[in-house]
Design goal:
Layout (H helix, E strand, L loop, with lengths): L2 H19 L1 E7 L3 H4 L5 E6 L7 H17 L4 E2 L19 E12 L2 E12 L4 E13 L6 H11 L7 H12 L9 H13 L1
Parallel strand pairs: 2-3, 2-4
Antiparallel strand pairs: 1-6, 4-5, 5-6
Length: 198
């Protein structure tokens, strides 16, 4: 078998293992979620202070979350460099709520076990519109996903390199469970303006 075919098979096996390995334990939606999304479109991402991540990993998870919610779920995500707003106070910009993310990480040899609890909260009032829990284990020695690894290593340092793909896959599984809003033209312009500032 030639080297190219071996690499393709290795990539397919890795992707199947990654997709089948991730578990979303539960998803809870408020009965008002669909109705709320008609007006709830602006949020900030807040890392729960009880998360057991290092500083670089926490920043990486927050950045991945902001990007995924903005680009794949169409929320208008305001920057939140101070990580404020966990209790719906001092929310930056015109945000109407928060996406609260609590993560844990356990490393054993070349394996990493991650869990992520996400909550979409409407502010004021701190009411939970959506909640989900995802967890999975991954290998940190996979050579795949080099562009993802390189991107986050450049932003957050060498220590996050082997963790970038596992974090991304777990968060993607979590965010694939949430429905995003539909933006009108003015809101799309607002979203573009916010994204151009970050």
């Amino acid at each position: 078998m030639n080297l190219y075919l071996k690499r393709i098979l290795s990539l397919v096996f890795f992707l199947l293992l990654t997709v089948s390995n991730c578990t979303v334990s539960y998803v809870k939606e408020s009965p008002d979620l669909t109705k709320s999304l008609a007006r709830f479109k602006r949020l900030v991402v807040v890392m729960d202070l009880k998360s057991t991540l290092g500083s670089a990993e926490s920043k990486m998870a927050k950045a991945m979350s902001e990007q995924y919610l903005a680009h794949h779920r169409e929320f208008i995500v305001y920057p939140n460099p101070k990580n404020s707003g966990e209790t719906c106070t001092d929310i930056p910009g015109k945000a109407q709520g928060i996406f609260l993310l609590k993560m844990t990480e356990e490393i054993s040899g070349s394996k990493i076990k991650l869990s992520a609890l996400g909550q979409l909260k409407s502010c004021p009032g701190n009411s939970v519109l959506w909640e989900a829990l995802a967890s999975s284990s991954y290998s940190t020695t996979e050579a795949e996903e080099q562009s993802l690894r390189k991107t986050y290593t450049q932003k957050f340092g060498e220590s996050v390199g082997p963790k970038a793909a596992p974090y991304y896959h777990l968060l993607r599984a979590l965010f694939d469970e949430i429905t995003g809003p539909v933006l009108n033209e003015a809101e799309q312009d607002e979203k573009i303006e916010i994204e151009s500032q970050t």
